[in-house]
Amino acid sequence: MVNDLIFPDILLYLLDMVGVIACAIAGTLLAQHKGFDIAGCILVSMVNAIGGGTLRDMVLDRHPLFWMTDLNYVIIITVTSLILQIFFHLYHKIDNALKLFDAIGLAAFSVIGFKVALTQDVSPVIAIMMGVWTAIIGGMLRDIICNEIPLVLQREIYITASIAGSVTYLILQHFGVNAGINEFIMLIIIFAVRMLALKFDWHLPSIRLVA
After folding, report:
1. From CA 96, how far away is CA 198, in angstroms rounded?
2. What is the pLDDT of residue 1?
3. What share of residues in the chain are helix, strand, coil (percent, to 5)?
4. What is the pTM assigned to this prediction?
5. How many angstroms separate the CA atoms of 89 and 50, rounded?
6. Residue 156 φ then ψ, to 5°
7. Paired strand residues for 55
8. What mean pLDDT do residues 11-31 have?
9. For residues 170 and 70, what is the distance between their CA atoms, to the nearest angstrom?
10. Residues 22, 99: contact at Cβ < 8 Å?
11. Among 168, 167, 158, which residue's Cα sits nearest to residue 135?
12. How far apart are CA 165 and CA 160, in angstroms?
């Protein structure tokens, strides 16, 4: 019974760290491409990696904030950003690299935000919203700081991927699928939808009134 309680927590923590590293990489790549200095790159990577989770916890009234009680977040983000800045010259295809790590962060943080919200006994709709917020807010702030139009505002299949994963989780949960397996399926679905959208250039349609 103890292992059943501990393992999901460890799994979620590791998943959170995967998302943090991915978003730190995405933030640093864009900041380096924009010519930011060392501190600027670290700042952008911090905002990208923990911005969404910070807003989520504030809305859900979860205190203290997760990164204030666990310095591993700050340390891992800083180290990841510094290492990437040193080897930045190896990343020739900045756009492709940015979108890959952005997709990894999207999937990981969607799962984390969704699961955290469920532990707060909120409704499924709010849990889905928290998953989306956790996944996109950091990237939006990153793009704004770097003077870019946020990806989520460009008809990208981004929020839709997060929602698809959350809805799939709720459906499988209804049929009694193990939580750990369900989280893995949710992660894969979000990442796959996002990458397929990039590969096949899927976009959400614009709604315009016909004159």
Report:
1. 10
2. 41
3. 80, 0, 20
4. 0.86
5. 26
6. -75, 150
7. none
8. 89
9. 30
10. no
11. 158
12. 9
Is residue 181 scored above 50 in pLDDT? yes
CA 112 → CA 20, 84, 99, 102, 169, distances in Å? 11, 25, 20, 15, 12
Q: How many CA atoms lie within 13 A of 87 on its CB side?
A: 7
Helices within 60-123 (DSSP H only): 66-69, 72-86, 94-119
CB contact at 8 A, 5 and 91: no
**Tokens representing residue 41 in the block:** 């790159």
Instruction: Confirm if 98 and 1 have CB atoms less than 8 A apart.
Output: no
Give the 3-state secondary structure of 2-57: HHHHHHHHHHHHHHHHHHHHHHHHHHHHHHHHCCCCHHHHHHHHHHHHHHHHHHHH
Query: What confidence tens digit (pLDDT) does each residue in 80-100 have?
Result: 999 999 887 766 666 677 788
**92 and 180 in contact (C-beta within 8 Å)?**
no
More confident: 2 or 147: 147
How is residue 188 written in tokens? 């894969």
Q: Using only C-alpha atoms, what is the Rg of the chain?
A: 17
